[in-house]
Amino acid sequence: EAWHGLGMAYFSIEKYPEAEEALLKALKLDGEFAQARMNLGTLYIEMERYEESIAQLMLVVDHAEYRQPARARHNLGLAYYSKGEYEAARGEYREVLRRFPLFCPSIRNLGYVDEAEGKLSDALARYRQAVDCDPGDLRSRLSLGIVEARLDLVSDACEHLSAVKAADPYGALREEADEYLQMLSCESVNKL
Fold this sequence. Notes:
Largest sheet: none
Order of helices and strands: HHHHHHHHHHHH
Oligomer: single chain
Number of helices: 12
Strand content: under 5%
C-alpha cells in the first residue's frame, strides 16, 4: 500500500511518470490490488494512453473485491470517450446507470457523448438530468449552460453560467463560464 500511496501523491501533483512507476511497483507486489489498477487506468487516461487505460480498467470493472464498480466502469467509459469511441463509451455509461441509476457523473458523460455526436437536444436533456441528480455539480451546470447557448436558449444559458461563475470564484470553470457570459452579452440579457 505504500507504493500505491506514493503513486497517488505523485498523481495528485501531476508527476505522471513517477506516479506510473509507483503504481506499477504496487501491482508487482500484489497483482490483485484492484484500487492500484483502477488508479493506474485513470492515470493512463490523464496521460492520453487510452489503450493501456482500457486494458487496466477492464481488469477492474468485474473484480469481485473492488468496492467501487460504478467508478471503474465510468472511467472505462471515459477512456473510450477520450479515444473517440463514442458507442463503446455510451455502452459503459449506460451499464453504470443500469446498475447504479443515481451515479450522476455517468449521466453527465452521456451528455458529453451526445454532444460529441452532434446531438445537442439529447445532450441538453442529459445535462438537465445531471444537474437534477446533483445540483452542486458545476461541470454539469457549465455543460448545460454551454449547450443552451449553442441552442440559442440565451436566458437559460446566462442563468446557468452565472451560477457556475458565482460558485467557482477562483477556478477554471469560472473562467470558462465567464467567457460564454461575455459572448452571450448576459449583462444586457439580465437587465431585460
